[in-house]
Write a structure and sequence with these properties.
Number of helices: 22
CATH class of the largest domain: Mainly Alpha
Distance between the termini: 34 Å
Number of domains: 2
CATH architecture of the largest domain: Up-down Bundle
Shape: elongated
Strand order of the largest sheet: 4-6-7
């Protein structure tokens, strides 16, 4: 069925994640994955029958790995693990973040190296289908041994404990499962550990941030194209011959985007034929847009590759290899690849916010723009876009401060057994706020660019860029005299989040 996503643990795509998380497509465990999970489960059952010491099956955890647990206490051990680790704090993850975490954990288990019964994945899929969402605090993970605290709050609900949001009501997990007709799991050997050991907290946040970043990277190109016309800049720097001799894919893509968006601009033609304009080169914030935006695109492409690997990886410990009946301890739960990816995204966000703020300054400053001061008639009587630029500067500065890398930080935990950690969840948690800041900075740039272009009438921007201008004008009329523009910024920001400006760019690319 078109609205069903089969989980194999090997081939989950970003598009499928977004379909489940945002459009409520129904995930189901693939039969091939069910068979593989059963084979790995048999290995665990054999370990229990032999009473051989295996970490997390019949031993304690972390520093207490040397403590043997009797066969009679194995189930209690797993329940205690879930309960003791469910000690997260801070704001609750949002519905989309929780859904992404549930789906990604289900897919990791479906890979068949965790020794857990298929019922665990079936239960997670049923909860997603019922829109039964565990209440998961966002803080408390250091991103090694996985996102233990967040995943423990998720696992609590699977066993009929914890709290959930179900049918718009907060209630105990047991009550919600009963209402939804879902049987809670009775944990057996290794199953609590298999539910907790993994990177799916930070991975969920990164997967969602990547989607927003794709939208904003395209929207930033649209905003830059409008700013170029508002400032009567030249697209010469976007010539593909310049991009070819450096050969970064993101540079070439951004340069092409800007060429297509500005193609047919009468503002551009007036600049080309002008004998009074002595400018030879534009400022870096215009001329070097392909180099800067392009570097962001290349950075995000690398992050995408990392996430696709992690989405289809076995990330708990120990791992069960059914083909040789071995249970091997390792460190696939360590979040360093994702922590570094989150830092890359943070740097990319700060970069786009920084260069966008510079283009806004170019437009509001009459010494640089050739436009009325602060983009308003009768400047002095009116302040126009003066404080919009101040707001953009504040957001850009805050975003830069938030971009400090988290992946280089580590504090030893678990009596120094877990002595180097990734801080990946912390690295990923900050991205949502940073993306909000960037969205608002770009919204301000779009408003400023459209205001600047209005002053150049009867000259017009290019046909594709006009579509973006019309979007802005659909929610924000030109500023003829001072008024509060907070609502205008918010309205344009909502259009950005909805992908409206990204669609303008995609339409231009399709028409090419």
């Amino acid at each position: 069925m078109a609205n069903t996503v089969e989980l194999t643990g090997n081939d989950l795509t970003l598009e499928q994640v977004y379909a489940v998380v945002l459009e409520h497509a129904q995930p189901v465990l693939a039969e091939e994955a069910r068979s593989k999970m059963l084979r790995s489960r048999e290995v665990i059952e054999q370990v229990v029958a032999r009473d051989a010491p295996v970490y997390g099956v019949n031993t304690g955890f972390g520093k207490m790995a040397s403590v043997r647990i009797s066969s009679a206490q194995i189930g209690e051990l797993q329940i205690n693990l879930v309960r003791s680790h469910a000690c997260g704090i801070g704001r609750l993850l949002g519905e989309q973040e929780t859904r992404a975490m549930m789906l990604l954990r289900a897919n990791a288990l479906a890979k068949g190296y965790s020794g857990i019964r298929p019922q665990a994945v079936d239960t997670l899929c049923a909860m997603l289908g019922a829109r039964l969402h565990p209440l998961v605090p966002s803080q408390g993970s250091v991103g090694a041994s996985g996102d233990l605290a967040p995943l423990a709050h998720l696992a609590q609900v699977l066993i009929g404990e914890g709290e959930v949001l179900y049918q718009d009501q907060k209630m105990p997990g047991q009550q919600a499962l009963e209402l939804a007709g879902i049987a809670p799991l009775r944990l057996e050997a290794k199953e609590g550990l298999a539910l907790l050991n993994g990177t799916q907290g930070m991975l969920a946040l990164l997967v969602l941030a990547l989607r927003e970043m794709d939208i904003l990277a395209d929207t930033a190109d649209v905003a830059a194209a409008l700013s170029l016309d508002a400032l009567r800049g030249t697209p010469t720097a976007f010539d593909d011959r310049i991009a070819r001799v450096r050969s970064f894919p993101g540079h070439r893509q951004c340069a092409q985007n800007l060429r297509l968006l500005n193609a047919g601009s009468s503002i551009r033609e007036s600049h080309r034929s002008s004998r009074t304009d002595s400018r030879v080169q534009d400022p870096y914030s215009l001329r070097c847009t392909p180099q800067v935006h392009g570097a962001v695109r290349d950075n995000i492409a690398h992050v995408r590759e990392t996430l696709l690997v992690e989405m289809n990886a076995a990330t708990d410990n120990p791992l069960v290899f059914a083909e040789t009946a071995e249970v091997l301890s390792g460190g696939n739960f360590h979040g360093q690849p994702l922590a570094m990816a989150a830092d890359q995204v943070a740097i990319s966000i700060a970069t786009l916010a920084g260069i966008s703020e510079r283009r806004i300054e170019q437009m509001v400053n009459p010494q640089l723009s050739g436009l009325p001061a602060f983009l308003v008639s009768e400047p002095g009587l009116n302040s126009g876009f003066m404080i919009l630029h101040v707001a953009a500067a504040a957001l850009a500065s805050e975003t830069k401060a938030m971009s400090f890398p988290h992946s280089v930080d580590s504090l030893p935990t678990s009596a120094n057994q877990e002595d180097y950690v990734s801080m990946g969840m912390t690295a990923a948690r900050r991205l949502s706020s940073m993306l909000d800041n960037l969205r608002n900075v770009v919204a301000i740039e779009l408003l400023a660019a459209c205001q600047g272009i209005d002053f150049l009438a009867p000259l017009e921007t290019a046909p594709h860029a006009q579509k973006a201008q019309e979007l802005v004008r659909s929610v924000s009329r030109p500023v003829e005299r001072d008024r509060s523009l907070s609502a205008d910024i918010a309205a344009v920001s909502r259009l950005i989040a909805a992908g409206e400006f990204q669609r303008v760019l995609k339409d231009a690319l399709r028409a090419y």
